[in-house]
Amino acid sequence: MNPSPLSLWEQTQLTLLRFLSIVLGLLDRIFHIHWGEHLLDRMSNRWQKRLDQLGKGLAWAALGLVVIVFLTGLLQSSDIKQLFLASISIAVAAVPATPLTYGVTLVTPLT
Fold this sequence. Notes:
The chain is mostly helical and about 110 residues long. Helix content is about 85%, strand content about 0%. It contains 3 helices and no strands.
């Protein structure tokens, strides 16, 4: 049995349905991409705020450690110059390494 040939109207309807399904599929993808990026931006902003808070907390903890080391050395009547250098060393070690700190380290003379 041969299927009956489609009339012009039925062919037009099938073409329109195919076109609409393609357009709706594309719109669905665009919608998901747009809202997915929007949600990722919101999530990354939330995580960025938490990381900033953590960084501030760690910076204060490092500063507290520097003060404790310096005051403990003063109470033991150690050399102030060595205490100062040790405190600066701890403070520098607490700063994360970034390309900027690498550049400053490489450019700064060792005199």
